[in-house]
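Data deposition worksheet. Section B asks for the primary sequence of the deposited chain exactly as it was used as input, without tags or linkers unless they were present during the calculation. Section C holds the resulting structure in token form. Section D is free text for depositor observations; keep each observation to a single sentence. Incomplete worksheets are returned to the depositor.
Section A, Depositor: J.P.
Section B:
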Amino acid sequence: MNDVIVVASGKGGTGKSTVCVGLAVALVKQNNRVLLIDCDCGMRGIDLMLDVEQEILFDCSDVVCGNCKPRDAVYRSRNLNELDLMAAPFDTDNEISPSVFKQMVDELKDDYVIIDSPAGIGSGFATAAAPADRALIVTNAEPTSIRGAIKIRNRLKSLELDDIRLVINRFDRKQFEANACYADIDEVIDVVGVRLIAFIPYDSRLSAMLQNGYAELNWSPAVTVFDCLAKRIGGEKIPLAYKG
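Section C:
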């Protein structure tokens, strides 16, 4: 299939990396090979979520610098045999050019490649988006996050990436109603101007599990939502698993 998906957000704190891991796990459960690439230079965290932080010798900048071959910088998840990771460098000075990154990803394609973009629309975002066939924009249902999502949408379109879908993450109905910023979720979707593909409820256990390296997500109510997202990514025409 060789499907490359960039996952982006306009601001930090939306749970973008959690969405990357949750989607990757769900795709693996559906018999796909998945490569996760962490592009958040200087702020990498997916190695912790996959419990491979002690194994990382090379990252994507080492590949670009010629310190290793591309596959030497790919590490298997401790708990899932078909889920691999290429980590971001700790050093923010080691950002990779879009053209070089695209060439590297072309050499590494599995069934799916999921790229965790740094938040915002800086140079790191342009690099992460360069090899992508499509994009997921992750936002929370509050104004500052949605403003960032709009900026990401516009930037993706300027890069001529038109296959874009919206993921509303960490949704808490009581908090949404208390904020009273939007009449309903349909208004949120209309403001962003991107078609919704997943709606993920807030679950503190999900974050706790991933911070402790339990990427299987077997005990979280969000599992059903990620399974649904993976099926919709694969082209199945099924309804949302959660509607708030």
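Section D:
The chain has a mean pLDDT of 88.
The beta strands are 3-8, 34-38, 75-76, 83-86, 112-116, 134-139, 164-171, 196-201.
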